[in-house]
Amino acid sequence: MRKIVLVAAAAGAALTLAACGETATEEATDAVEEVSADAEANMEAMEETADEAVAEAEGAMDEATDAVEEMADEAEATMEEAAE
Predict the structure, then answer these.
(1) pTM surpassing 0.90?
(2) What letter would DSSP give residue 20?
């Protein structure tokens, strides 16, 4: 059902563009290309931001793991001292 609606919309758009002059078609093409370029740039920026967030999270996890290991070593040393 959705495909039929999409095909009908595309056909309507094609007929509309065909009815327009060549200038209007070129302007529409230019507008689509601009929107496409903007969307691509935004996706690249989002990907970069996500990569940075993942790197920060990995660094924080590494630091937290190191801190927990250090605390465990200190607790073990304290237990050994108490046992003596």
Answers:
(1) no
(2) S
The secondary structure element, H or E, covering residue 60 is: helix 22-83
State the DSSP H helix or E strand holding residue 1, giving kind and residue range, or none if neither.
none
The answer to whether residues 17 and 24 touch, using CB atoms and an 8 Å cutoff, is yes
Q: CA-to-CA distance for 52 and 64, rounded, in angstroms?
A: 18
pLDDT in tens, 11-46: 666 666 665 666 767 777 888 888 888 888 888 899
Q: Which residue has the higher pLDDT, 76 or 36?
A: 76
Q: Who's near 20: CB < 8 A, 6+ residues apart? A: 28
Helix axes 22-83, 2-19, angle to 10 degrees: 140
- Contacts of residue 25, defined as CB under 8 A and 6 or more positions apart, other chains included, come to 17
